[in-house]
């Protein structure tokens, strides 16, 4: 495979990985097994900690360390009640990167930096990138509307150049990437690397049940839908009978289901009710959600777990990018990263050949 300096040197030097490829911190999917496999293969694996208790996170970080000595990251929620304890754990364990779906405040960024941990929040709008860059983050992960999970309306091809032209920190492009051609395209836009969720979910190292992986592989680029009925905010998921029923369900039915899921999530994660209520209030204020939408947000962890852990593609919600329709195999993380870097090398060579053109 090509040497890292040829591709995304700014990012690889910052994170300490060989290749500018990031595996996103997908809840229930980005386990120690997947994060370690990605990092060992030269990318940056990110452990999903938002649904873990503090003790579970401690054990998960230890497991990644046992599997690889390569740098890795941990994805957290900045609004968790014990986020300071989690940050201190990352510092003690020498975790390379802390990633956030919701941007951390300046004091938390400073605490991480004081402990030698890099900070990379995910953003979906130019104004968000400007804000976190001013706060001193080390990199930003920019996800366009094609991406799975919580997403915006602006496609990557428009959002990425907007952000690259706005901030001075390394930009990681997400939303629609799965191969070496995409890596070259992202670098051409000015990104320092790419991040992939759905592509890493569909690998042999992913813990997702095989039946669910096969369910994903059968889908086309038109088999995802952006819905607000999962947790009140735009969420790109696979189109299923369950999602269709959520779209059609009356508000009282959705709310009662959300309450039941909130009780289960509290028991599983150890999150106190006061933190759940505080989070709901913050969501309602920051995202202008109704109370019914706030209650619906409690559904998300349990609905995702039903598919990604329990293998219930009939009862669970499956976050997915539109790129799912372009994926047709289940390589190991090492095979995937090697393929992407080889394709990127070939693509760049083709583009830089004297007289190379696709125009007749």
Notes on the protein architecture:
With 360 residues, this protein is α/β, with parallel strands linked by helices. The protein has helices at 9-15, 32-40, 54-67, 83-93, 106-114, 126-134, 156-164, 180-189, 198-201, 210-217, 241-248, 251-269, 273-286, 291-296, 299-308, 333-352, and strands at residues 21-23, 44-48, 72-76, 97-100, 118-123, 140-143, 149-150, 171-174, 193-196, 224-227, 235-238. It folds into two domains: 4-210 and 326-352, Aldolase class I (TIM Barrel), CATH 3.20.20; 218-308, no CATH class. The protein is built from 16 helices and eleven strands. The strands form two sheets. Strands 1-2-3-4-5-6-8-9 form an eight-stranded parallel β-barrel, surrounded by seven helices. A three-stranded antiparallel β-sheet has the order 7-11-10, with no helix packed on it. The protein is globular.
């Amino acid at each position: 495979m090509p040497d890292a300096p040829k591709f995304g040197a700014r990012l690889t030097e910052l994170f300490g990985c060989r290749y500018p490829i990031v595996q996103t911190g997908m809840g229930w999917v980005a386990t120690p097994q997947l994060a370690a496999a990605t990092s060992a293969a030269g990318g940056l694996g990110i452990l999903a900690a938002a649904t873990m208790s503090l003790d579970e996170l401690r054990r998960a970080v230890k497991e990644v360390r046992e599997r690889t000595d390569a740098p890795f990251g941990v994805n957290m929620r900045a609004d968790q009640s014990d986020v300071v304890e989690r940050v201190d754990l990352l510092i003690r364990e020498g975790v390379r990167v802390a990633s956030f779906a919701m941007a951390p405040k300046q004091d938390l960024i400073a605490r991480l930096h004081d402990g030698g941990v890099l900070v990379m929040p995910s953003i979906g709008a130019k104004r968000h990138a400007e804000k976190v860059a001013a706060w001193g983050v080390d990199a930003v992960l920019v996800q366009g509307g094609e991406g799975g999970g919580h997403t915006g309306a602006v496609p990557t091809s428009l959002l990425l150049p907007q952000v690259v032209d706005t901030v001075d920190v390394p930009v990681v492009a997400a939303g629609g990437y799965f191969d070496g051609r995409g890596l070259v395209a992202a670098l051409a836009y000015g990104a320092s690397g790419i991040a992939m969720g759905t592509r890493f979910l569909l690998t042999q190292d992913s813990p997702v049940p095989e039946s669910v992986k096969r369910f994903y592989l059968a889908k086309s680029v038109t088999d995802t839908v952006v819905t607000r009925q999962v947790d009140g905010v735009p969420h790109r998921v696979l189109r299923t009978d369950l999602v269709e029923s959520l779209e059609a369900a009356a508000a009282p039915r959705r709310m009662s289901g959300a309450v039941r899921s909130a009780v289960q999530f509290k028991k599983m994660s150890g999150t106190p009710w006061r933190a759940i209520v505080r989070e709901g209030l913050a969501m309602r204020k920051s995202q202008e959600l109704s109370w019914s939408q706030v209650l619906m947000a409690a559904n998300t962890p349990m609905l995702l777990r039903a598919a990604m852990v329990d293998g219930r593609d009939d009862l669970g919600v499956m976050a997915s990018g539109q790129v799912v329709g372009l994926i047709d195999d289940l390589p190991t993380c090492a095979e995937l990263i090697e393929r992407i870097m080889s394709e990127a090398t070939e693509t760049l060579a083709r583009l830089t050949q004297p007289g190379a053109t696709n125009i007749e």
